[in-house]
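Feature request disguised as a bug: please show the residue count (277) next to Pseudouridine synthase in the output. Example input:
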Amino acid sequence: MLLLLNKPFGVICQFSKHERYPSLAEYIKTPNVYPAGRLDTDSEGLLLLTDDGRLQNTISHPLHKKPKTYLVQVEGNPSDNACAQLRKGVMLDDEITLPCEASIISEPEWLWPRTPAIRHRVNVPTHWLEITLTEGKNRQVRRMTAAVGLPTLRLIRTQIGDYSLWQNGTLLNNGQSLMLDDTPAPPSLTRRSTPDELKARYSKRPIKPVQPAAPTHNAKGKPLRASPDTPLSSDPRLMSDRNPENQPERKPRKAPSGGRRARPTAPFANKRTKTRP
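Example output, currently without the count:
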């Protein structure tokens, strides 16, 4: 399946409930679809959702270099030098962005109003830029415009590869979704099975519980008997060299005469003086 969504401002790109922002579950009712790539909460525009892991990887992975087009409202007067810096690449942290397309455009006539509206400053004008990237770093467009002295006020994504907000000449309204392909993706080894699929798979055959193996040695490494009534000779878990029946018979030791051992009377027995007696 493949679905398009014109994501409104302030919607977080997840289906689970969020304590502060509305989620995609309020706009998408189709089950088992997930975003192919992300769009910041404070950004608007095109978002692709699919249930096909391969298609999701093709759309979002940087190796495929899918071009993404953004309309950016910036604060200030963008110059040709600033656009040239954006096209050439700017330094972000410790790396330079890849070359991109950047141009100054007029305000789009089809633009929908944003809620809440952007801030307006009387003495600072605003302009619109069109930027097309082939990479997707974290908040890259906002960081790029800020690096050339043009803070971003509003950011709208209009196109990802061959997919656009315009379908058959009609613009998707803010918050509107469109199903391009309703065919479910075939099961794959990399996709997690749904609870219904797991239930159908294991309902025909019972699952036998796996019993843990009985310990053969205690914490000190000594072998254990199978049970108190089992003789040592019939316990298969015992080693043969530990079995008393396999040990050679030993003669008992003789007790010393007199009950106590006599002290030696060798020369230099006196340790204090070390002299002969």
